[in-house]
């Protein structure tokens, strides 16, 4: 029982710093070159500001290969 608690507690502690920094959808997509076409389309559609605000949002993000 103690090993399980320690394992769960360690998982939560390691997850906290990652969860504290929440990138926006636009930031995540812009940081990955495979999504450059999507980022261009989002900006052209005027959606960058919206998708950078508080969500929640669900985005089906095709890669550049999907646009090709």
Instruction: Quickly give the structural class.
Output: mainly alpha
* Average pLDDT reading: 75
Q: Secondary-structure element sequence?
A: HHHHH
The percent range for strand residues is under 5%
Instruction: Give the end-to-end Cα distance, rounded to a whole number of Å.
Output: 53 Å
Topology, number of strands = 0
Please, how many helices? 5
Rg is: 17 Å
**What profile does the largest beta sheet have?**
none
Shape: globular
Low-confidence stretches: 1-18
Proportion of helical residues: 55-70%
Describe the structure.
By secondary structure, the chain is an all-alpha fold. The protein has helices spanning 2-20, 25-30, 36-44, 48-51, 64-67. The protein is globular and about 30 Å long.
Features:
single chain, 68 residues, mainly alpha, globular, disordered N terminus
Topology:
Blueprint lengths: L1 H19 L4 H6 L5 H9 L3 H4 L12 H4 L1
Quick recap:
The protein has 68 residues and is mostly helical.
């Amino acid at each position: 029982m103690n090993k399980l608690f320690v394992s769960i507690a360690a998982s939560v502690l390691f997850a906290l710093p990652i969860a504290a920094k929440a990138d926006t959808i636009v930031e995540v997509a812009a940081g990955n070159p495979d999504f450059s076409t999507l980022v261009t389309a989002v900006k052209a559609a005027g959606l960058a500001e919206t998708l950078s605000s508080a969500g929640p949002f669900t985005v089906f993000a095709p890669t550049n290969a999907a646009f090709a």
